[in-house]
Amino acid sequence: YTATTNTSTTGRGKDFEKKMEGRLVIVLPEAQINFIESSEPAQLKIKFDGSEMVLTKKGVDHELRLRDPRAKSNSFKANEAKRLVEVLGPSIPVEVHLDEGQVRLTQWSKDVLLDIQKGKVFAKNCKTSLAVQLKRGEILVSDHQGRLVVDSYAGNVLIRNLNGNLDLDNFSVESNLEKSKGRFDIHQTTGAVKVTQSAGNLQFDIGRATMNSTLFSGRVEGQSQEGAVSISMTSNSEVNVRAQMGRVTIQTVPGVA
Question: Which of 14, 67, 93, 162 sits most deeply, having the most CB atoms within 10 A of its CB?
Fold first, then answer.
């Protein structure tokens, strides 16, 4: 390692620079984590509070955990302080496990797995396979290239300008897909699904949720148990929708190919 004191923090912070061959695994009860791909520094730099967190090597992987595993996340809420981890440099595969917190990814290009009980995920301009497991919170993915997998119990999901395949399973709340291209497989039990100005192959399976697709170009196939389905399509598109109880409305937009 090349380790130096991080003078931008309280003096307890540490900067670690290292060329990594395996994954970076972060396991914390509560944190705000930022991943930024950059050509500088040449090696991956990890900033964190060295007094309470420790980075260890396990095989080819590196793991960041609390130095004292008995530390409680609520002890930081009283002081309105948050654990901050910053990862800057060349992308490597990463895996994050949080009880609560926020993860932000910018221009990351290696595989990412996020497992968060409660919190927020922001990903922008990434070119990778991104998998997000979220129990409660928000997910915003924009300008993404590659496969995207979202598994959420109660999340507000917004995906813009996706170029790739999507596997989305959201039990409740709302899922939005805008201006995207690819194969989209969407499952939702309650809440609402909205697909706007997108193209490719759309498959959906909804329970009591509503499904609203506007100006879709391509093939739409799906089924609904009780939720209402409304689809407007371009003239060269195909549709096959089955419903048990929900109302289905399908229309072709005149003059739009």
Answer: 162
Q: Name the residue among 120, 83, 94, 88 with its Cα closest to residue 106.
A: 88
Mean pLDDT across 242-248:
92
Structure-block tokens of residue 61: 């992987």
Q: Which residues pair with 159 in a beta bridge?
A: 141, 177
Question: Which pLDDT score is estimated for 199?
Answer: 96
Q: How many residues make up the chain in this entry? A: 257
User: Which residues touch 46 (CB under 8 Å, ≥6 apart)?
Assistant: 15, 16, 17, 18, 24, 55, 64, 85, 86, 87
- Closest-CA residue to 157 (of 186, 125, 197): 186
Residue 197 dihedral angles phi and psi, to the nearest 5°: 50, 50
CA distance 114 to 140: 13
Q: What is the mean pLDDT of the chain?
A: 89
Can you spell out the DSSP letters for 72-94? Answer: -THHHHTTT---EEEEEES---E
Assess whether the previous peptide bond of 41 is cis (omega < 30° from 0). Answer: yes
Global pTM? Answer: 0.89
| Separation CA 1–CA 12 (nearest Å) | 17
Question: Token match 């407007």: residue?
Answer: 232
Structure tokens at 142: 């924009």
Asked if 114 contacts 103 with a C-beta cutoff of 8 angstroms, the reply is: yes
